[in-house]
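Figure S7 source data.
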Amino acid sequence: MPLPPGQRAIEGFPRFGTHLHHPPPPIPADPVIEIGGAVSEAVTLSMADLGALPRRQVDADFHCVAGWSATDLRWEGTSFAALYRARIEPLLAPGTAISHVVFTGLDDYRSIVLLEDALAEDVLIADRLDGRPLDSDHGAPIRLVSPHQYGFVNTKHLCRIEFHTSAPPDPDRFSPLAAHPRARVWAEERHRYLPGRAVRPIYHSLVRPIRALSARGSRTRPR
Ligand SMILES: Nc1nc2c(c(=O)[nH]1)N[C@H]1C(S)=C(S)[C@@H](COP(=O)(O)O)O[C@H]1N2
Ligand SMILES: [Mo]
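Tokens for the predicted molybdenum atom complex:
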């Protein structure tokens, strides 16, 4: 597979993220996804609820906005679209038009995604990577996987999904590295205001330090 513009293939699949050196959150004994926002009733989905939906496999590369790509990953889980049709649409009052979805992780990381992007056919709530349960480096127990969007959309350790009828406030909007709201890799939507090409060098300079900080050595491995 060719890589999207401005990406470089790397060996393996590093742990990477704004969590930096923080260890991954502990995996709850009974993981759930809380559903909230513009739904008529807040509900909690168990792993069994997810397991009742059709399973899907997605083979894809993974592209971080900083410029590295991990190639040939195999994800398994439930398609987000199937979850939305089966469990969310029945909770919407007539006339409620969802536009944005907020995905939150156990570490309080958040990504804001347009509903139309989340409904793309390659978007999964994934629980397996390369034939094994997700490990804590890559988002255990479950994560969002949206390979057509940059890595920062792909919230790890997913525990809450909120549905909105307009754009929710984005605290990152005025930061110098304000993320593009759609983050589609083939259009190189890296930055909210600047062309993707123009910010490549800035992002590339972040790969090495973030990678070094995010890797878990013997000192940070949970006991
Ligand atoms: N919960 C959580 N999810 C997260 C992040 C994070 O810091 N916390 N970082 C994001 C970023 S910037 C990237 S590139 C990918 C990295 O996924 P990986 O650690 O599985 O390589 O996770 C995304 N999801
Ligand atoms: Mo990233």
